[in-house]
């Protein structure tokens, strides 16, 4: 991602030196142990710093031994006993992030490198939106204090805490309910001017959409075990605004640390509290990546899904293809299990006739080779273009500043056609209407929506359709404006369902 490490107020002066307050440059909260190789330079010189964790000062290299979490709306404070002269300073930060839910192979999580640098003028000490220092220890499977007495079994009687679920729209596309994902507001969440809960409730209160998807890893500091108090307070406020939650974006962290993979029981213990939170919210279900759970975990989860009457949606997206052996095998598994509480969520990032112009502009600004960028613009669907993308990465031809942006070509953008998705339709219970920008030349935005709408109508679809904006990674635009405009475009495209758009 190209989300920032350094915001405008990152540099603060103190009586004995300075504090650098880092934003988490990711889309959800992360374990502190996932942060490695943290380095700071000020005015070109390497600076020794200590990280403030729950009242302690530790060396950045010791973060890998910390049990706590870095909540997405908290700042990681780096303290330095060096007084800076007044005025502007060039500040640079580098770090690596081990992403515990994304694999880099069978034995390790994906490791991403981040670098951010900018001129900063020191500001007065800052009061965050919810004062807190990252790192409150929490081990998945252990109850929060707010849940004292409730136990850790997600099947514990939810009773009246599980609200009525009436979110399935009719099967007539003209009456389908469109929802909005709180994920669209990721940049604002990181900015901390408002709490994540206030932002999510504002989607409904501001009449953008009557139903929302939420991300527990953005919403609550109690993630990955959302506390009963957090969940109930949000549910009450959202209902008062006239809104509801459709799907909860769960996380399944396969790695307990950068070097240790979780057992199946540990994976279940990590996911189960998120299932309980979804049930308390009255959500239809939770979503996880397609194929990540696997047969053994699905069998562990099935009794919970049936008891709570919630759905586990496996989200297929971007370059994933049913031609891939693992993908095809997982689809066969879902058919074999034959459980209405296990369904597919299709993200239409699989259907990209061309790349977003705003993304191509970002590549150019980042210094990606002009010939390759032109090829991406004109020949995105070509398999030879995909080979050129991989060759550029392997050959070191992608500037360091563009690495994270460039990874979208491999992990987020797809080249499937609507006909390729037909085998998924009988199991499809939800759709993400993914968009990156609103440039609809040649129907690059509306065409895939029309195609999926026509296919869903043929299959008798009755699930939810959600506007999800992925372009906030490189496009600094107002999330509310983007989402409103996209929902209006989607309504028009879905009403034009007589024929799919031309390929």
Major sheet: size, sense and barrel closure? 8 strands, parallel, barrel
Strand content: 15-25%
Helix content: 25-40%
- The end-to-end span amounts to 30 Å
Let me know the average pLDDT: 88
Q: Name the strands of the widest sheet in spatial order.
A: 12-13-14-17-18-19-20-21
Label the structural class.
Answer: alpha/beta
Cα-atom radius of gyration:
23 Å
Q: What is the count of DSSP helices, taking H or I runs of 4+ residues?
A: 14
- Shape estimate: globular
Give the beta-strand count.
21
Unreliable residue runs? 137-172, 498-503
Kindly describe this structure.
This protein is an alpha/beta fold. The chain has 14 helices and 21 strands. The protein has helices spanning about 185-190, 195-205, 215-220, 230-240, 265-280, 295-310, 325-335, 355-365, 370-380, 385-395, 405, 410, 445-460, 480-495, and strands at about 10-15, 20, 30, 35-40, 45, 50-55, 55-60, 70, 75-80, 90-105, 110-120, 180, 210-215, 245-250, 255, 260, 285-290, 310-315, 340-345, 430-435, 465-470. Strand 10 (about 90-105) and strand 11 (about 110-120) form a beta hairpin. Helix 5 runs parallel beside helix 6 (about 295-310), helix 8 (about 355-365) runs antiparallel to helix 9 and helix 13 (about 445-460) crosses helix 14. The radius of gyration is 23 Å and the shape is globular. About 45% of the residues are buried.
